[in-house]
Amino acid sequence: MAVESLGRMVLYIGVILVLIGGFFILVGRVPWFGRLPGDLVWRRDGLTIFVPITTMILVSFVLTLLLNIVWRR
């Protein structure tokens, strides 16, 4: 029984990784993602610091909504 549950867990992790990979592929095609107002960028001689505050808030909000819809019982 323990081997079956381990196999299921590995399959679930694989499906989650495929979904995350697909998400990153699709997000790479959205030109405004990561360049929203509120995303901070500092550029100096050979140094760039990027802090995507607004993008992180947007992703957090969307994931919260999705997870509440999926796991609501």
Give a short account of the largest sheet: 2 strands, antiparallel
Query: Would you tell me the overall average pLDDT?
Result: 89
Sum up the overall morphology in one term: elongated
- Biggest β-sheet: strands ordered side by side in the sheet: 1-2
- Helical run tally: 2
Annotation, overall tally of beta strands: 2
What fraction of the residues are assigned to beta strands by DSSP?
Answer: 5-15%
Mind explaining what this structure looks like?
With 73 residues, the chain is an alpha+beta fold. It folds into two domains: 1-30; 37-73. The chain has two helices and two strands. Strands 1-2 form a two-stranded antiparallel ribbon. The longest helix is centred in the first third of the chain and has 27 residues, at 2-28.
Features:
73 residues, alpha+beta, two-stranded antiparallel ribbon, 14% strand, membrane, transmembrane helix, transmembrane, DUF2905
List the helices and strands and how they pair.
Layout: H1 2-28, E1 40-44, E2 47-51, H2 53-71
Antiparallel strand pairs: 1-2
